[in-house]
Structures are given as structure tokens and as C-alpha cells.
């Protein structure tokens, strides 16, 4: 692992650059719409990370590259382009990437960090440090629930939007809520500071300009807001009130997770590469056959594919996306978004993948009860997945051991954790760990030891049917 990492640093052709296939229309740097933050006391302290909020327009890039540091030190910034968003927001050559949108990445491999940045869409918040003296993972404690800005979708009723605006000077606005009004019902907290309207910052607006923008919103408006206590805590931590950190409240649409079990006639859908909302190339799902697994899982014709087994496919070509689906075997976890949700997230300039925590999960009916149990150890229909630890260092699942039936299985999956994003479900049987078969009680201790080793943790899984244990 260390030799491979060192090779990435030494070999220029292996440097990963955020300059994607021109066919996808995202290969040129453009103006940033984010605030140009100046130095702060927190930034000058060597034991505190700096935060760089990067923004790119459609057809643009962030304007920097990554290289893998030797000795497993994690990815570092290189190739910062003059005038690009990365340079204007203070990203420097040699900076270590500590976190991507509150996801600690200091010990992740370069490709995983790059994947997280791509999945963030047009905006990303990076926590970086020039040369951390201590474990960099300790410098970036994730924000807890409720200590984040809120993205709230407010629908006008007979009382209007249900708030009025107070201000001290241009760009500083606070909301006064009408009790029981539309804004309060949409989750806007009392005394919230207004940060964005429909994906655009209000920091340069006068009060009259803000009022005109709200009127032009029509019957509904999406607000990025921060409660007073959130604003204060982020100020103390030196964390910007950035949209990529936001929690979604009462959003009109969102991503959906689909779990498909292949049947005798396949999954029952067609994947096609074409242009979608805003002319972007993407992977779209069509010809959903009635009654087949895709239809039963809730797939809709015209859905755009966002992720396979929890890993983003944004920016990937058609052949590579198909390969990732096939690699999952006969049981596939897909994350999709319909055209209405696609338009919404494009308007607010955020990736739908940032709002997966509350995503709707649709499972097919429990038809696997009719499937005959496969012989133990059979490779037919099994699936493989690679897990990387989350911010707390864990993989987000608990194990169960039974002397009869399956020897080792998934007992519990933490919502939103690494295992959940990879598609693991309670009841899944562990057949192999890092290429070695699992067939005894000692494998529980072995798996716990492997969980502390260098990631990824590679599992081959089967699943339990209601009648017994079998590989699907």
C-alpha cells in the first residue's frame, strides 16, 4: 500500500486532475460564486484547519489536482491553476485534504477523496492544513446533527411565506417568523440568518434587492438559513456556514435508494447515456418493464442514476457505469433521482447525494422467499463490496454469529454509515473477507482485526431469505 502511494507521488502521469472528459462538458475553470474568505485567527493557527468553499459553474472545474503522499499520509493538493476557484479560495500547493463536506478523509486513498469531491457537485467545502503536527483526523471533528445550516423549501399559503426580514446592513438578513406560518412549518428556525435564496447568496444584496428576489420566486422559495446557535457554534469552530453542509428540511424532492434482486428475466431496465437537465450528459434509466425487479423496486422511466452501491457515478462514462452495476452481481443497490428532483438540485447548486441521509428507500416485494437455497459456499449470485471507514473510524455494521445456518452475518447496519452506503443489509451473510472464505467462529475475531487494518475492507456477501440462508 505504501509503495503504491509513493508511486503516485513520483509519477506525474498518475496525478489525478479535476479535469474530466470534455464530452461531459465540465473541463474548463470558471468564476466562483462563493465568498472569498480572508484570513482568520482560526486559519492562522497551525492546529486548526483552513476551510475553502469552492464553487464551479456548469462546464467548469475547481482548478486543482491531487497527489498521493508517501507513507499513507493521504492526498495533497497540487497543480493549483491561477485564477481558478481553488486559488481564489485559498487552496495552496501541498495542502493536505482533511475533510470533504464534513466527511473526514485524512486517511483515505486518493481515488476515494477524488470521488467524494466529484460527488459533491458544483460546490464543495474542503478542510485543509499545510502540515498538521498531530493526527489530521483529530483536527476535523464532524459537525453533529442540528449544528448545520438548513435548506428549507417554503410554499406560500394565504399568509404568504410566513416571515419578514430584518437587516443591519447589505448582506446581513435575519428572519422573523409568523407563528404557524409557512416558513415555520418548513423548518425555518426562529431568528435564523438568511444565507441564500434559491441557491444564490444574499451577501451582496440590499434589502430592496432581496425583496425583489423573493417576489420573483413565485409560490415557493428555497432558503438556506442558520439558527443563531448554529451560527455561533460554527463561528467558534471557524467553520463557514456553507451550503454543502446543510440539512434538508421539507424539500420538494430528493434522491431515492432502490434495491434490486435480479430475477429469471433480469433486472428489467435499460441504462442509456444522454443529455438531461441543463444539457449535462448522464446515465438514465429507461424501458422499465412492468412487474420485473426494477419496476417492483420503484424505478421510474427517466430516472437519472447517481450512485451504485453507495458510490457516485457522476462523471463516469457509460461503459464504466455498466461495469460497476454488473460487478454487484444479482443484487444491486442504486441511487437515483427523477427529473423534478434533478431540476430542484440544479437550481440550488447542490448535489442530490448530499441529501441521502433522509432519502426514500424503496425495496422490492419479498419474493426471495420463493428462491431455493443455494449450496453453501456457492459463488452463484453473490456480490462484492469494498468499504472505507467513516469519520469515527468504523464501518457502520455489527456482526452476528450462529452455529447453525449462516456462520457469520450482518446483524445491524448504521443508517448513513459506510456499510449502508455500500448496500449492506441486516441478514446479509459474509462469505469472504479480503479474499479469504469465512467458515468458523474464529472468523469473528479475524474480521474485527481486519477492520482495524488498512482500508478498504473487501467483503463477498450472500443474503438470507425468509425460508433460510442462501446466496442471491
Automatic annotation (TrEMBL):
Domain of life of the native organism: Eukaryota
Subcellular location as annotated: Cell membrane; Membrane
Stored InterPro entries: NHER, PDZ, PDZ_6, PDZ_sf
GO cellular component term of the entry, any: apical plasma membrane
Region (Disordered): 359-386
An annotated GO BP: protein localization to plasma membrane
Residue ranges of domain PDZ in the record: 51-132, 151-229, 257-340, 384-465
Membrane topology: Peripheral membrane protein
Keywords of the record: Cell membrane, Membrane, Phosphoprotein, Repeat
CDD domains: PDZ_NHERF-like
Transmembrane parts of this sequence: none
Molecular functions (GO terms): protein-membrane adaptor activity; signaling receptor binding
Major subcellular site: membrane
Protein name in UniProt: PDZ domain containing 3
Organism of derivation: Pipistrellus kuhlii (Kuhl's pipistrelle)
Amino acid at each position: 500500500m505504501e509503495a503504491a502511494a509513493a508511486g503516485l507521488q513520483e509519477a506525474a502521469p498518475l496525478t489525478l486532475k479535476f479535469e474530466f472528459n470534455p464530452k461531459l462538458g465540465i473541463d474548463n475553470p470558471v468564476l466562483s460564486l462563493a465568498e472569498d474568505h480572508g484570513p482568520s485567527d482560526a486559519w492562522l493557527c497551525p492546529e486548526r484547519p483552513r476551510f475553502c468553499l469552492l464553487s464551479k459553474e456548469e462546464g467548469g472545474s475547481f482548478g486543482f489536482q491531487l497527489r498521493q503522499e508517501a507513507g499513507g499520509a493521504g492526498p495533497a493538493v497540487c497543480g493549483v491553476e491561477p485564477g481558478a476557484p481553488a486559488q481564489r479560495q485559498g487552496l495552496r500547493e501541498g495542502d493536505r485534504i482533511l475533510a470533504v463536506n464534513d466527511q473526514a478523509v485524512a486517511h483515505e486513498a486518493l481515488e476515494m477523496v477524488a470521488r467524494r469531491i466529484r460527488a459533491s457537485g458544483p460546490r464543495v467545502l474542503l478542510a485543509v492544513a499545510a502540515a498538521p503536527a498531530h493526527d489530521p483526523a483529530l483536527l476535523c471533528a464532524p459537525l453533529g446533527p442540528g449544528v448545520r445550516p438548513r435548506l428549507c423549501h417554503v410554499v406560500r399559503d394565504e399568509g404568504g411565506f410566513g416571515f419578514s426580514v430584518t437587516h443591519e446592513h447589505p448582506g446581513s438578513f435575519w428572519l422573523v417568523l409568523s407563528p404557524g406560518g409557512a416558513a415555520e412549518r418548513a423548518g425555518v428556525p426562529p431568528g435564523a440568518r438568511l444565507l441564500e435564496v434559491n441557491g444564490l447568496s444574499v451577501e451582496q444584496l440590499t434589502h430592496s434587492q432581496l425583496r425583489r428576489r423573493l417576489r420573483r420566486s413565485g409560490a415557493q422559495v428555497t432558503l438556506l438559513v442558520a439558527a443563531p446557535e448554529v451560527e455561533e457554534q460554527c463561528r467558534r469552530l471557524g467553520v463557514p456556514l456553507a451550503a454543502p453542509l446543510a440539512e434538508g428540511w421539507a424539500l420538494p424532492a430528493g434522491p431515492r435508494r432502490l434495491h434490486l434482486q435480479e430475477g429469471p428475466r433480469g433486472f428489467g431496465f435499460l441504462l442509456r447515456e444522454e443529455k438531461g437537465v441543463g444539457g449535462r450528459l448522464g446515465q438514465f434509466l429507461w424501458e422499465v418493464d412492468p412487474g420485473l425487479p426494477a419496476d417492483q423496486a420503484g424505478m421510474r422511466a427517466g430516472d437519472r442514476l447517481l450512485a451504485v452501491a453507495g458510490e457516485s457515478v457522476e462523471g463516469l462514462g457509460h461503459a464504466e457505469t455498466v461495469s460497476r452495476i454488473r460487478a454487484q452481481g444479482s443484487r444491486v443497490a442504486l441511487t437515483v433521482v427523477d427529473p423534478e428532483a434533478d431540476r430542484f438540485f440544479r437550481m440550488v447548486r447542490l448535489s442530490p447525494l448530499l441529501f441521502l441521509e433522509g432519502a426514500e428507500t424503496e425495496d422490492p416485494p419479498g419474493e426471495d422467499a420463493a428462491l431455493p437455497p443455494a449450496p453453501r459456499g456457492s459463488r452463484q449470485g453473490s456480490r462484492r463490496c469494498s468499504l472505507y471507514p467513516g469519520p469515527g473510524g468504523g464501518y457502520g455494521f455489527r456482526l452476528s454469529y450462529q452455529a447453525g445456518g449462516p456462520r457469520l452475518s450482518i446483524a445491524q447496519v448504521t443508517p448513513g454509515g459506510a456499510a449502508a452506503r455500500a448496500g449492506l443489509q441486516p441478514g446479509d451473510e459474509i462469505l469472504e473477507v479480503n479474499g479469504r472464505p469465512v467458515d468458523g467462529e474464529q472468523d469473528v475475531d479475524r474480521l474485527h482485526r481486519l477492520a482495524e487494518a488498512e482500508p478498504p475492507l473487501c467483503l463477498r456477501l450472500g443474503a438470507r431469505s425468509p425460508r433460510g440462508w442462501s446466496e442471491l
